[in-house]
Design brief:
Blueprint: H1 10-17, H2 29-49, H3 78-87, E1 94-97, H4 104-107, E2 112-113, E3 122-127, H5 128-131, H6 139-142, E4 148-150, E5 154-159, H7 161-178
């Protein structure tokens, strides 16, 4: 679902939420302090997430993993990915799967490789759209802890041979349970935009 469907409902939501302003007319200070605290929280979290506002999710909701597609990622973190690669020369070669119309070469990212099947040990940068896609082609990475996050929409992983062996050892049983409808799903991943 895209946010544009919610836009017509925003004026009504603003009117409903404005009833909170009544707490400032009450004689008790507790509701006023609570409203002020929430206001500071909203402003503070908005400033904390800047400039990655598109991927922002309320902290209590657990992050942006509940929405995908254009709700979270339009490739806006691609330039931050380039900066990360420049700041981490040890992360070479890096295999990148992300949602962006610009290829890594156009962004100036050097020594970027395609993802192989089965994957090889090394560095991976993956967009959360690709990570949580319904195809399940990147499910191996879901159970791993990212080494770093780029712009709240790209996860960086370092795969060891033991990570790959563990997944490959358990992949047949996982594939039989989770991919009964689609037997041709593999770990083959390619760069988008090519």
């Amino acid at each position: 679902m895209h946010p544009r469907y919610l836009i017509p409902q925003l004026p009504l939501a603003y009117l409903w939420i404005s009833r909170i302003g009544v707490v400032f007319t009450l004689r008790h200070q507790y509701p006023q302090m609570l409203a002020a605290l929430f206001l500071v929280w909203v402003v503070g979290s908005s400033l904390w997430i800047y400039p990655h506002s598109m991927s922002y999710f309320n902290e209590l909701a657990g992050g942006p993993k509940y929405l995908l597609g254009s709700n979270v990622d339009w490739g806006q973190s691609a330039y931050f990915l380039k900066d990360w690669c420049d700041d981490h020369p040890e992360a070479r070669p890096i295999r990148i799967v992300y949602s962006c119309t610009k290829t890594p070469e156009r962004l100036g990212i050097q020594d970027c490789h395609r993802i192989t099947n089965p994957p090889e040990p090394g560095w991976y940068a993956m967009s959360m759209n690709n990570l949580y896609s319904s195809s399940g082609s990147h499910k191996m990475f879901r159970g791993l802890t990212p080494v770093d996050y780029i712009g709240y929409s790209i996860y960086v992983y370092y795969l060891t041979q033991s990570d790959i062996d563990c997944f490959l050892k358990n992949s047949e049983s996982c594939d039989e349970r989770t991919n009964e409808k689609d037997d041709d799903i593999t770990l083959s991943m390619e760069l988008e935009g090519e």
